[in-house]
Specification:
Elements: H1 2-27, H2 57-61, H3 76-94, H4 99-122, H5 127-139, H6 151-180, H7 187-225, H8 238-250, H9 255-260
Helix pairs in contact: 1-3, 1-4, 3-4, 4-5, 4-8, 5-6, 5-7, 6-7, 7-8
The structure holds zinc ion (ZN).
Length: 261
Amino acid sequence: MQETIFIAAPALFGLIIGSFLNVCIARVPAGQSIVKPRSRCPSCGTPIRSRDNIPVLSFILLGGKCRSCGGRISWRYPAVEVLAGALTWFFFWKWIGTPVWMAASLLAVYLLIVIAVIDFETMLIADIFSFLLGVIGLAAAVVNPYLEGAVADRLLQSAGGLVFGAGLIWLMAWLGKKIYKMDAVGEGDIFLMGGLGALLGWQGVISTLVIGAFFGSVYGIGLLLMKRAGRRDHMPFGPFLALGGVINLYSLVSPVRFLFL
Ligand SMILES: [Zn+2]
């Protein structure tokens, strides 16, 4: 029993973090403080009591409804909590031998969850989060398992990844505009790839773009087939870049292996 709790502890910690990420997702796009006031029901505005604010469990016990007004609570809340819990568990045990990198990569994962959900819901990426990814990438370059050599070399590789990531997707955006006359890539995606490049280096940039484009295409084709979207509809790219980023933060994936094996 004790052993089970010990093994599960990172996931429980992640659930609590996920609860805070939900606050960021709901408040940052609206320009509200993420510290005060305490959480309220989005329908009736009643402050949520502590015992109704337990990650996942409260949602299940309340049947996804507010205790005061019965208004529906979005399934996004437990979904983000479960996602944060699961990823924390995986990253904790994967990088337990390099605790500083574990902390840096987990911080990046939490930022990516927030970026992905906000972009999915509002089609916007708050650039402050991409900026923070870049700062974490540069600060953690010394312990980054994907970079090599002395401190100065590592900083150079991280900064190089930042420029390469932002530059490559900027080029894609420019070509998309020239050739297809469409804005497939937004400005937010450029900053996001810069931030990811600082964490993953240039190989990680290519891999993240390939994985992001792959899953983005699968999702886009799915929407078209289900007639949920037309060919000219806009689709956020950020969530798929974030997905590619999380996969590469866990383990650097060769884009060739990803596509052909
Ligand atoms: Zn309510």
